[in-house]
Amino acid sequence: MPPKVVAVAAGEAHTLALTGDGEVYSWGRGMFGRLGTGREADEHVPTAVAPVVAVGGRPRPRFVAVASGAYHSLALDDLGSPETLQAEAQNSSTQSSLKLSSVKAGGMMSFAIDNLGALWMWGNVPQQSDAGEFCIAASSVPLPVWDFHGHTVVKVACGNEHVVAAVSAGETYTGGDLVCYAWGNNNHGQLGLGDKESRSRPVLISAFSEGSSWEVYEIACGAWHTAVLTNKKSFDVDLESRCWTFGLGDNGQLGHGTTATICSPQPVDGLPTGSFLISLDCGLFHTTVVSSDGEVWCWGMERGLGLCPEASFSGVDSGDALRPIRVQSPETNGFKFLGPVQVTCGAAHTVLVAGDGYRMWAWGRGRSGVLGRNQTADSYIPCVVMWPPLDENFQEIHEDRAQASTSGVNDQNSAELEQKLSAASEELQFLRSKLTLMERYANILHISIFRKPLDERTLPRSLQESHVFDIRKEFENILDTADTDELNRLEIFYRSMLSGVKDKLLKRRVQEMVQECIVSLSSGRQNP
């Protein structure tokens, strides 16, 4: 099967893709070794990174996360595998150190969150000078951010010189209780604190505090602006998500219809209200969001992104998109990309993972091959990234075809190679479409039952134990572990679901099954 992309990250002019089997691929500008291929040459198509395997028998890394700064890249190795832990134990007699759970990068700084929820930073990071004033200072070693002691850092994002963190309101993260802190350079109001005073230490953003009616679930930073996705705090079945932006607005990257700089969070109008926003990222001077039904919206810098093709670039018409513009999908001839997963933004390019992880689209500036389509030309509409990478068989066919076409002496062999490649491509496309259909069906079914997407890394307990998905047992597990708020949500969801069942026999059976689960739990036993 082709490798499935589970995460992407974009830097100034390069892109990283992480696959489900722990491999990392990179493409774009190679200067400073940011691609991890062992050289500084540009790569015009996704190319596997070449990790250095340490001496002493340490196994090849299995990566679980990636991040990109302007000119550097990060990849997090999974040190929890039995082989790695065994090798670690043989090479060290000391106690096991902290493990990192996620990484993030931006500008010329890097961040990591460990398994205890603590935040670490290094590079050119915001610090406090000896005189107690704000400064940007370089650190070649990770520094802990002590301000969050007693809380759990869940997400972090950073721009050129500012940082935003989503942190648990209490000591531990229980879901839906995140608040936002910001610190760093604030010369454009990108901290969202209502002023332009820089901060050397994290300060709570009041719009996203514990008392706010909105709860944060995603954050992103551009060079000098910030974007936040939130849910409405309510027990409604239909979740209402909203995008907020603040900071520099010179290129319309805030999406408020002006080029004004804004120092406090304001919601972006013009985004879909009937669907859930699942992904968000900021480029140098642009912003992109993706909805659950596959719509992609961009706003901000025109030059290099082609958001406003009719722009005159004369007088007051800079061509920038001051409000969200819906991106057209070439695969549907409409505005919906099939199976959207994640979006990432570079300085002047955007990459979308769709097809439930088996297809990538890119648009914007194409310099250094950053669009991953074996060209350096710009593309103002989404183009297909060359994914999956050519395996050995396809590579041989590709090379043979190139050799035959170059020599021009064996047209028959060239035709046969073309037919062979075409047949293999059709078979691969057929299998990929079948797998995508099955994954989408499983995900829709899981959401309809449990109100959350199916995550292959956290499979339901019954499926892990017996390889059979026991819906009744999973429902009992949910009821047994739910708190009061979750039980209220479940009740509302159950009543709404039941009202939509038209078949009387099916409705009665659903009621009986739920009642049996409740009786089973109240009596302290599990029904087979």
Automatic annotation (TrEMBL):
Pfam families to which the protein is assigned, alphabetical: WD40_RLD
The keyword 4Fe-4S is annotated on this UniProt entry: no
Gene3D superfamilies associated with the record: Regulator of chromosome condensation 1/beta-lactamase-inhibitor protein II (2.130.10.30)
Key words, A-Z: Repeat
RCC repeats: 22-79, 117-169, 178-232, 241-293, 294-356
RCC1-like domain residues: 4-303
Name assigned to this protein: RCC1-like domain-containing protein
